[in-house]
Structure formats: C-alpha cells, structure tokens
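Q: Here's a chain of 430 amino acids. Please give me its 3D structure as tokens.
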Amino acid sequence: MFTYKPFINAALEELGFKELTQVQKDVIPKITAGRDLVVKSATGTGKTHSYLIPIFQALNAASPTLQVLISAPTRELARQIHDFARQIADKSPLPIDIRLYTGGTDRSEEVARLGRAQPQIVVGTPGKLRDLVKKELALDVHHVRTFVVDEADMTLDEGFLEDVDMVAGAMSPNLQTLVFSATIPEKIQPFLRKYLKNPDFIDVKSMDIDSLDIKHWFIKTREKPRQEILPEVLACINPFLCLIFCNTKESADEVYQRLLEKKLNVALIHGGLEARKRRTIVAGIRKLDYQYVVATDIVSRGIDIAGISHIVNYELPSDPEFYIHRSGRTGRMNKDGIVVSLYEFADDAYLNKLETKGIVAEYKEIKDRQFVDAKNRRERTQRSYKPGQVEGVVRRNILVPAKVKPGYKRRLREDIELAKKVIRKKRGQR
C-alpha cells in the first residue's frame, strides 16, 4: 500500500490508513530528505503521523542511542503522541524503546532507568525534558538526529519556549528540527532563526473547515450575563457530546459549577487540574461518560476526541485562528456539527475577520427553547433612508444631514437659543 518499511505499512493498515492527508503528502518527503521544517497546520489534519512515519522510516532500531526527541506543551498531547508512536513501534520486528516523560511521575525511578539504558525515542513536556537534560544530566541528547517541537505557539503561550530553547541548545548543531504550529506568532521567530537551518515553510490550510459540515451560529448577549444565557443555549440542544470553551481557568471553573447545579452530566478540564485527574477525565470523555465538557483551549489543540456534536464558545477566543481550531473538533467523520458562540457588540471586527476566513455566520436568538433566525448584525448599516437623510445623525431631536448649506451651524445655534427662551418663558408663566 505504502512504500515504507513493512512494519510501518502493517501499522498504517491496522490503523485504517487508506491514503495520506495533505499535510502528510507535503511533509513526509521533506523530512525524509533531511530538511528543517516549519509547518503551519491545524489540529485534525494528520500532522502527528506526518512526522512519525518518516521518523520510524529512518530510525535505526538496532542502535541503543537516543535518536528522536519530541516536545509537546501538555501532558495529554504528549501521551497521545506517545500512544500513536507505540502503535507503529509494536509492529517492528526489533524492539523500539519509546519513553514518555511528563510531570507528576517518579523522577528518581526515571533517572535510574536512564542510567541503565537510553531510549531511542522520547516524547515529553518541555519542563520535564529540561530537568532530565540540564538538571539531572540523565537524558543523553548528544546523538539526537531529529527534534520535533509540536504545537509551538501553544508552547510559547504557556511559557515553555525557554525550556525548549535550553533542551535544543544541548543537542548537536547538525540536528534536524521540525516545528509544527497552528499559528506562527512573531515572538517565536527568534527561536526559529536560532535553531533552524534554511527551513522550508509549509502552510497547510486548516482542515478545509469550509468542507466540513459545520453550522456556525452566533447569539448576541445584548448585555445579558453569559452565565444566564448559557443554560438557555444548552436547553435548545440535545448533544451527543458538547464542548463548552472558556478562555480562562477561572471562567471554566465558574461555568462548571453552574452546570453541576443544573444537574447536567458535565466534566471539567483545564491546565490547573492535577495531572492524574486530567488523565482520568480525558479517558472518561473518550468513553463518552459525559454529555458536556467545560474546557479551556487545552482540548482544542491536539487531543483527539471523537463524537463531538456541538461546540459552545462561552467566550470567543482572543485569536480568530483559535476559533477555527475549536470548530475543527466537530463535523468530523462525515458527521455534521454545530458551533454556537456568544458575542457582544464589541466583537464586530472579530466577526468580520472570521467571515474573511470562510466562516459562514448565521445569527440566532432563542425563543420558546429553540433557536430562531435573528437580524444580521450589519442590518443597521444596511438600513435605507429617505432622500437627503442618508448618513444623517440625530442631535437634540433634529436630523442633521451629512451635507449642509452654508450658515447651517449658525442658524442651528439660533434655533437652539430660541427654543431655550421659549422654555424659560413657559416656566416663568407657571
């Protein structure tokens, strides 16, 4: 089927691969050729296998040295990458030592095991990798040939880029560095210039979100508290699985507590939870133990959860690109999906930008526990006026046309003064 080592082909066949995704077609030949890469690619495009396949193709399973290091910004994403790698490695005729290093594990046992033997592939979170490389001097990265930085913009946002920098600095200058990111923020440019040698830039369009069967519904808050609107939204849907996105841990905590009070079957996941609890919750979500999940963007970036029928943006993400990533969690596997977002008047420019990215927005309001069409937010600016009144503004109940005759302001002042005199005279007669 594919022109890879037999065990890789066997693994891909078992995983149900029929053909490569666009990012895999673009990336695999470049990695195989030894190029440094910066790949802009959203969640759900198949990017993890785009680097795992050529990594296993080039791996020397007979060599007991560390050859590949993969950094991921969250424990959940690191574990998922490790699991994907394990699925391929298990088909190898020679054993391949792959180890996962994240926070909340027994460091002394890990260091002792590294003293006995080095793994061939390591997947880990930035802080843990830094500790094992720089503090414990236990992870020998001098022979690493390929370094993968996955979700680089999230690594930057979470404050981990310095950790990645320290790990990269301990490796060979002949290293092949592969950076995958949903966005390429300006603040990550110094890292790219420092460690990548004449890299190729590949921009894979976000999962062709217009090709997914997703409806984008926007509900104006009309200055009503969001915590009051959210239960009304949820009362209109009966989701298979609904992700409710908040921008902060504090906001997510508050929403979660309110939904618990409503007796909904809801889970909470964000970076502030203890690692073991997060693992348990993610496992429960994948087993569909919950109907609703309140989350921060930790879930929208890389963690693969099937069966999501609805997304609710309790708060719009700060970056419109992140709206795309959140939306891409639904509408998969030939299923339709609905994204419901609460917005305010101040979000107009944001919504304009979304529409330039191909989002077809529908504006809704809630009546009798169901969504009905609302007026388009642009309708005010599209309102027709009588001739001579277009662009007019109301001042003291007097319509001021955009174009006025000479002396208009003087006459207006005189009219106002006359009106004041009339009012004073009437008051004096009372």
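Q: Can you summarize the key feature?
A: Residues 386-417 form one domain.
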